[in-house]
Design goal:
elongated, single chain, 3 strands, 3-stranded antiparallel sheet, alpha+beta
Length: 106
Amino acid sequence: MDIIGWVLQRSILSEERIKILTTQEMSRITLFYSFIVSDQSIKINDFNKVVKDLNGLTVEQFLHQLEDKFIIENRGECPYYPEQKHFISLYLDGQFYKLTLKRRML
């Protein structure tokens, strides 16, 4: 059996089987949908959060607190877009920063 057949067999119950399941049986079953796509066809879009204030900290104090968990690189005024997992773009006080999660945090 190929991988697609295996996934389909494991992830889909027929309508007939669902109709005859008891309530107790249904409570033990978790239904889910799955699909297989190539990694070339997936694009992860930007996800942005806005921080309204730094809770009384200066920009320098805020960055200093981040240094415990991230390697921080000032990228200037040019927008920075993370190129891989565990990289974060921070825009603060007119500057872009590249934050790289430290290995010990993984």
